[in-house]
């Protein structure tokens, strides 16, 4: 499959499309118009058409999209036929909630190891996931060939642990701490900063009011 | 203060700038160059200068930025002198973690009420926050003049509860469910879809490798 460099905004919408197509397929729907898809995923149809165009012509004007075709296509793009194991570092309140979060529902992702400094938790199984002491970090990540880590440690521990993760060969970090961690160029960081998300919502309500639809321009 | 319509990407970075400036001020730093700021918040300096330019010229070439000036400015923009009360609906694992999440640290936000269907939780105080039964939703939101809700309910309950929230006069929803909820045009929704964030990270590692710096173009 020929691949083009797609915009980050498009890549972010792919899992959304995939999940909804999965839902449609499960409910027996075989065809969907770009208007219906737009309504369901709350992305305007021009953006949907542009997103899809990066992967070649997937729909026919006046016919819409074939659900199974699209589903097969996104499944391949998103590597959904392969299980991705990730680790979670820091089993506090948020970490614990994420262990219980169903990442697998429409995404073939599994947290297969947790790590924590707390000796009361390390060595136990929490929500089905084995929790190891921090001293086992490098070893376990290597043994389990884990390249992606969810980081839910206290802010003041974030950079130190990030350095350890980088040394252990991690390629991607989903960073839930408010710290903007420093990593070498070959490590990818996805920041999920909950306070900032909430503050952005408040800012927009204070200043502008209602939701705009999802477009590249304002995202 | 004259206000321009700023891009969503800029608005999302304001809390980040604000938090870092707060940190600088607390540590006694009075001046910062745009290069230092760029390093710390991981946003390229051209983007920082452009972001700041929406609010008028805030720095001087060759001198950098005055920390206290910037801080005062962002404090006003972000309404940090006023406490914002929000509610949380759905006190499950994730909801509970968010009750413990320190939204106030650098952001003047407080979860002042929780709501849940579970009679074992409703009527209790969890992590300092009173939890009310769903039947009290409209009443409590009105009494506490809450306009913003964090939604952490099961997916199949999300749309029904959203409709109730809209009826109760809510203006903003931070949606943690994977469902793209339907709301009237005057209600703003901020989606925080954890599985999608993680899948986007995996997608980028599979296809392109390392992190790009934060710019409008690829966000």
From TrEMBL, chains A, B:
Pfam families: CoA_binding, Put_DNA-bind_N. Keywords: Cytoplasm, DNA-binding, NAD, Repressor, Transcription, Transcription regulation. SUPFAM superfamilies: NAD(P)-binding Rossmann-fold domains, Winged helix' DNA-binding domain. Gene3D superfamilies: NAD(P)-binding Rossmann-like Domain, Winged helix-like DNA-binding domain superfamily/Winged helix DNA-binding domain. It is found in: Cytoplasm. InterPro entries: CoA-bd (IPR003781), NAD(P)-bd_dom_sf (IPR036291), Rex_bacilli-type (IPR058203), Rex_DNA-bd_C_dom (IPR009718), Tscrpt_rep_Rex (IPR022876), WH-like_DNA-bd_sf (IPR036388), WH_DNA-bd_sf (IPR036390). Residues 79-180 form the CoA-binding domain. Its main location: cytoplasm. Residues 16-55 bind DNA. NAD(+) binds at residues 90-95. Belongs to the transcriptional regulatory Rex family. Modulates transcription in response to changes in cellular NADH/NAD(+) redox state. Homodimer. This is Redox-sensing transcriptional repressor Rex. It comes from Lacticaseibacillus jixianensis. The lineage of its organism: Bacteria, Bacillati, Bacillota, Bacilli, Lactobacillales.
């Amino acid at each position: 499959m020929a691949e083009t460099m797609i915009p980050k905004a498009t890549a972010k919408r792919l899992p959304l499309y995939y999940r909804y197509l999965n839902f449609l397929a499960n409910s027996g729907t075989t065809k969907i118009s770009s208007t219906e898809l737009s309504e369901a995923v709350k992305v305007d149809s021009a953006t949907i058409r542009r997103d899809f165009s990066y992967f070649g012509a997937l729909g026919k004007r006046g016919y819409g999209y074939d659900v199974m075709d699209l589903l097969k296509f996104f499944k391949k793009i998103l590597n959904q036929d392969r299980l991705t194991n990730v680790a979670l570092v820091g089993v506090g309140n948020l970490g614990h909630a994420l262990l219980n979060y169903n990442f697998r529902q429409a995404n073939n992702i599994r947290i297969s190891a947790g790590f924590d400094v707390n000796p009361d938790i390390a060595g136990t199984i929490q929500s089905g996931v084995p929790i190891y002491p921090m001293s086992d970090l490098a070893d376990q990540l290597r043994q389990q060939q884990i390249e992606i880590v969810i980081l839910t440690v206290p802010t003041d521990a974030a950079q130190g642990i990030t350095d350890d993760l980088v040394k252990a060969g991690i390629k991607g970090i989903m960073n839930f701490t408010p710290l903007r961690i420093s990593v070498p160029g070959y490590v990818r960081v996805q920041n999920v900063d909950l306070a900032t998300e909430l503050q952005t919502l408040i800012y927009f309500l204070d200043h502008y009011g209602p939701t705009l639809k999802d477009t590249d321009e304002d995202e």
